[in-house]
Structures are given as structure tokens and as C-alpha cells.
Design a protein that fits this description.
Elements: H1 19-27, H2 35-42, E1 44-49, E2 61-68, E3 71-78, H3 84-89, H4 97-112, E4 117-123, H5 130-134, H6 137-148, E5 155-164, H7 165-169, E6 176-180, E7 184-186, H8 190-197, H9 204-211, H10 215-220, E8 226-228, H11 239-258, H12 262-274
Parallel strand pairs: 3-4, 4-5, 5-6, 5-7, 6-8
Antiparallel strand pairs: 1-2, 2-3
């Protein structure tokens, strides 16, 4: 017996949004605390250092001496800005070469005086403009990678939002690389990846899932050392609670690092980054 027609149209199946894309939107939320918000909340007596002593002072990078948990430290972070004017001045948080050279100058000061170094990262990448390339963007990033691997003080990097490409890595060659639960850490943005792989930026959600850049996935790959939980709804839903969670994690990891001889820290730092992205095949 044939089934009677009901006249009803088949219901459309709702598209499933990948978890990676949900977290991407949280990481990019303009209400999310930026590195300077964490610096202001977690550190006291912050005294900013300006200029790279070679070209100028980058508005997208801040560095300064401060106090954390009763001891002097060095703090470094990129700046995005809240207003359109600020974002334009800071190139939406993408540092120029002088920004990385200013950060390097601050790191060397910290090493000279034996101060632990904290970096906070929320950037899509280094500024890709022609002016930055003319002033040696690649060299500046590469030098930071090298020098950070040899610094004779404890170093801690925290990815609070987006951690993009070499621009983020230039602040993250650290003894401890921490990542907030809804942050992302990737070699490329999902939009750019989709444009390259499928010639269609609209497939950004598919790219986000494929890149495996969420906190849990990056930790499983060994690229970060710890994931910091966020309040329900993300750090933007309850910034004070987020600040407390980050502070507790930083105190725990700093204490662990200070308990180790500096030569041990250097050796472990070298091994950790030397082994990233190593693949072996069995015959």
C-alpha cells in the first residue's frame, strides 16, 4: 500500500557548528579581556619601557617592570585597543619589528637583573605590511625565538585569545606556555587556511576543525604545557573570575620553575621546543 502524501515539506537539518569554531568566536569576542587587562589586574607598580633604541616605539607592544606575588618581574604583552582609533594606531594588535625588538630589550633587562618574564599573547600575527618587511620583521621574530630559548631566568607565556603564527611564537618560547580554555593557537587563521585549501574563505568552520588549534587539541600535541579554565561563558562573561584563575595558575607554575636550577630549565626548554612537530615512521 502506498504511503499517503501529507503535504508537509521535509524539515531542513540544522548545520552543526564545530566546537573549534564556537571557541574561535569566543577567543575573538571584543568584550574578552585583552593582555593589558590581565597585566593591570594581576601586577602592581607596572612601569612601562618604551622604544627599541633602533627605530621607534611600537604602540602594539607593551613592556614593563612590575611586581607579582611579592617579587619583581618583567611583563610583556601585545595591545589591541578597544576603540576604532586605538585599534588603527595599534594595527589591531599586530606588532611591528620594533615591537619585537622592544620586547627583546625588556627580556634582556630582566635577565640582567634576574627577574622572571611573563608574556601575554592575543594577536592574529605580526604586522604583514611592506613597511614592517622593510624594517626586518622576519629577522626580529627569528632573533626573539633564538634569544628566548637561551634566557637565564624563568619564563612564562600565556595565550589569552588568539595566538597566531610566528608573531605569537616570538613571545612564547618559554619554560611554561599556558593557554586559556577558549583561546586558539595556530600557524594560520581558519579563513586564510580555507582560502588556500579550498579556495573558499566561507569554509572557515571546516578549516577550524581541521587545524586542531583549540586548547585541548594543542595541549594534546604538546605545544602548550597547561590549559587554564575559564568562567562559564568565557573570560568575557566574568573577567574578575578569569583574572583569579590566571593568577593562581601563574603562581603555581612560577613556584615550580623557581624550584629548579637555571641550567635544568634551559635544558628542558631546549628539549621541549626541539621536539615540537617531530614525526617518526616505523618501517
Amino acid at each position: 500500500m502506498e504511503e499517503q502524501e501529507t503535504g508537509r515539506q521535509p524539515q531542513a537539518v540544522a548545520a552543526v557548528v564545530p566546537d573549534a569554531w564556537i571557541r574561535t568566536e569566543k577567543a575573538r569576542d571584543p568584550a574578552r579581556p585583552y593582555p593589558m587587562d590581565y597585566i593591570a589586574a594581576l601586577f602592581t607598580d607596572f612601569t612601562e619601557i618604551h622604544g627599541d633604541r633602533a627605530f621607534g616605539d611600537d604602540a602594539a607592544m607593551t613592556c614593563g617592570l612590575a611586581w607579582f606575588a611579592g617579587e619583581p618581574v618583567m611583563v610583556i604583552g601585545n595591545l589591541k585597543g578597544r576603540t576604532t582609533r586605538e585599534r588603527m594606531a595599534r594595527k589591531f594588535g599586530m606588532p611591528d619589528p620594533e615591537g619585537y625588538r622592544k620586547a627583546l630589550r625588556a627580556m634582556k633587562i630582566a635577565e640582567k637583573f634576574g627577574r622572571p618574564i611573563f608574556t601575554f599573547i592575543d594577536l592574529t600575527g605580526a604586522y604583514p605590511g611592506m613597511s614592517a618587511e622593510e624594517r626586518g620583521q622576519g629577522e626580529a621574530i627569528a632573533r626573539n625565538l633564538f634569544v628566548m630559548s637561551t634566557l637565564r631566568v624563568p619564563t612564562l607565556a600565556t595565550i589569552t585569545g588568539e595566538g597566531g603564527s610566528g608573531g605569537a611564537l616570538a613571545l612564547a618560547v618559554s619554560d611554561r606556555v599556558l593557554m586559556l580554555e577558549n583561546a586558539m593557537y595556530s600557524v594560520i587563521s581558519p579563513e586564510s587556511c580555507a582560502s588556500i585549501m579550498w579556495k573558499d574563505a566561507g569554509k572557515k568552520q571546516q578549516a577550524a576543525a581541521a587545524l586542531k588549534y583549540t586548547a585541548a587539541e594543542v595541549k594534546a600535541l604538546g605545544c602548550v604545557d597547561d590549559v587554564i579554565a575559564e568562567p562559564r561563558g568565557g573570560s568575557q562573561a566574568d573577567p574578575p573570575a578569569a583574572f583569579g584563575l590566571v593568577a593562581a595558575s601563574l603562581k603555581k607554575h612560577l613556584a615550580a620553575l623557581k624550584a629548579q636550577p637555571i641550567d635544568v630549565l634551559l635544558e628542558r626548554r631546549y628539549i621541549k621546543f626541539r621536539n615540537l612537530a617531530q614525526f617518526y615512521t616505523v618501517a
